[in-house]
Prior knowledge:
Elements: E1 9-11, E2 14-16, H1 27-36, H2 47-56, E3 66-68, E4 75-77
Antiparallel strand pairs: 1-2, 3-4
Amino acid sequence: MQCSQPNGILINGRCFWQNTITGGLNFSQAQYFCSVSGGNLPSLHSANEVRQLISLTSGAPLWIGLIQSSNSSNLTWSDGSSLDD
């Protein structure tokens, strides 16, 4: 399996891709940019994914897809995947 995005890296069978945009994006803008590019903000399901994502970004700030609904204290991933315990 390969990533369809240029400069993407494969971690646990999932493609992670970094795009640096001058000036940065807020959460909603980042989420929109990912969706129109055919993806989602990252959901992280293992310590290995966290380590490799930090390595990919060289420790730079990044958005992840963990969201809290406005009427609940429940957290969910924006890609619909389950939140690991």
